[in-house]
Amino acid sequence: VLLMGKSGSGKTSMRSIIFANYIARDTSRLGATIDVEHSHVRFLGNLVLNLWDCGGQESFMQQYFTSQRNNIFQNVEVLIYVFDVESREIDRDVHHYQSCLEALLCNSPNAKIFCLIHKMDLVPEEQRESIFQGRETDLKLLSKPGEVTCFRTSIWDETLYRAWSSIVTMLIPNVAALENSLSYFANVIEADEVLLFEKATFLVISHCQGERYSDTHRFEKVSNIIKQFKLSCSKLGAKFQSMEVRNSAFAAFIDTFTKNTYVMVVMSDPNLPSEAALVNIRNARKYFEQLENPNNQTHQYH
């Protein structure tokens, strides 16, 4: 997985929040990335993301496209290109992005491409959608139809989790089987909604959603809230295991599920006994553990 973009665009900050348990305000302590920083991130237990965080200073960018071109762009599964929405050098940013596309075409033609229009919190709220749509249209014109997926992101809200959940879900080998089984599980227990979270990052990796909830950002908000709570627990030496939330409209249960996941089950009956939901979660565990690790193989992606 290649993480690229100009220096200061926020690449290392977002990587640290998603994979290294930083909170947003702590990322100001991070220094500039020098050359390429390699990290192996274990995800879902048996999926290893070989993440290359590429420093964005001009001198490094030139090397990536000349002397290091074959090394950097060989065997790439995913390119995540980060654009700073407030950049004053948008033409140069786009030029570097085009150079990446050309290098991928030669070395990794099947790589999936994601563009993150980042630091959207710096744009007035009423302008965000129009600015994002304008940037998205421009970037899609540079690529073949359907080749690039764009997200608007900020480290200060749930949009970062939305983008990275989409990217990582695409790398999970058996994601279709996971989603089918989750739907079946939701139907059997008559749940309104079931979400599956990866244990370390709390990214949503699969979901079966009902029609009654209108907030399209609710998955990422839950990811963000629970991860912050989990980090608060660990600072106190406590381990987060489960949580139950009830109001007059629903009952929600978040519990450890398989070795590498948490599950959230939302029921529309607020009077449902806790034990009834927890027994169903326990009974489904074994099946999902087998599904998660069918051959006990390790998949590596760069």
> Domains counted in the coordinates: how many?
2
Radius of gyration: 20 Å
Shape: elongated
Give the integer mean of the pLDDT values. Answer: 86
Strand tally, please? 12
Unreliable spans are none
What is the architecture of the largest domain at the second tier of CATH?
Answer: 3-Layer(aba) Sandwich
Structural class, from helix and strand content? Answer: alpha/beta
The CATH class of the largest domain = Alpha Beta
Strand proportion: 15-25%
In short:
This protein has helices at about 10-20, 60-65, 70-75, 90-105, 125-140, 160-170, 175-190, 220-235, 275-290; strands spanning about 1-5, 35-45, 45-55, 80-85, 110-120, 150, 195-200, 205-210, 240-245, 250-255, 260-265, 300. It is an alpha/beta fold.
What does this molecule look like?
The chain has about 300 residues and is an alpha/beta fold. It has two domains: about 170 residues, Rossmann fold; about 120 residues, Beta-Lactamase (2-Layer Sandwich), CATH 3.30.450.190. Helices cover about 40% and strands about 25% of the residues. The chain is built from nine helices and twelve strands. Strands 1, 2, 3, 4, 5, 6 and 12 form a seven-stranded mixed β-sheet that branches. Strand 9 and strand 10 form a beta hairpin. The longest helix has 19 residues. It is elongated, with a radius of gyration of 20 Å. The protein starts with a strand and ends with a strand.
